[in-house]
Amino acid sequence: MATDTLPTKVVAGVTVPDTSLVTKALEFAREHSTDYTYNHINRSLLFGCIIADKLPHTKERDREAHAVAAILHDLGFPIGHPPHSEVLSKENRFEVDGANAARAFLKREAKAEEWDKHRLQLVWDAIALHTIGSVVFHKEPEVQACSFGIWADFQGPDRIPGNPLTWDEYNAVIKEYPRLGLMKGLKDNMLHLCKTKPETTFDNTVGEWGA
To answer: In the Cβ-directed half-sphere of 137, how many Cα atoms lie within 13 Å?
Structure first.
């Protein structure tokens, strides 16, 4: 779907895609997320749109792919899943679990003629790489936009080069989607992964939480 014909809505002063697929992604994320994670993924989308729309190298992007990736990026968080969740594996990093689940969601719910291999790969990469800053910010605009929003939710406006996110914008998003103890929830998820899938944590930031 062309960007200029994409349905949109305004949330906390931010224009975001409002397609049926985005709605389904939100519903899918809600089914597999705690309240704090669900609010986090919504803030990540809003922050990503604010920042990416202001930067020349990310302004032109596939906004629906960006939205779906942001919404589904933490499907690999173990806390919040129903019992015997099919999303979670025993052997993959949480980012890979999330990326695989998002790709499976798109193959199941999206129109095949609109979602070719490239679009699917953009979403997979955006999710699988979102914790690896030395790689993700050299990727495609959609992938970068997704991580801009995720990182902004943890770091705040002051650590983003060029100050593309103001405190007024940041606070408006926080008011719409409160943090609800995100940092404690993040710690709980990271430690849960260290206890249940330690072999997936040794070469990444999850292991740092365990240490």
So the answer is: 13
